[in-house]
Amino acid sequence: MIRPGTPRDHPAIFRLVRDELVPRSSLPAPSPARLRRDLAARLARGATFVAVSPRRPVAGFVHLETRGATLFVDLLAVDPAERNRGLGGELMRRAETYGLETGCLEVRLFVDERNARARRFYSRLGYWPVRRVPPLRVVEMYKPLFM
Hints:
Aminopeptidase, alpha+beta, single chain, seven-stranded mixed beta sheet
């Protein structure tokens, strides 16, 4: 099940970001205090959806921001114990639905260039790379949204 995120989900989201996203980033890891502060500011913008499983109230999440007709997937993470059960795909489908509901025409996201697994995941969902951003060591990926 996918539901809108609430502030009560923030501790679980923080753990997923700290444990699953920060170690995969090419950028230096922020201190826990800075990560918590920056994440709180990010979650205050946009929309967050969480995946719920029988074993975990937050098995994964996606955080989104819209800018004009573009939906940006800011963060996506799934608990390792919940992977390969389709939750990432469900979260991305919910993100795309949200984009359509808010008038977006496209989705963009950045993935760490050395995270081949994530790039394959997004490619399977119809996203394609459009450019590398060398200073950030990421690849921007794109998908048009059509009704």
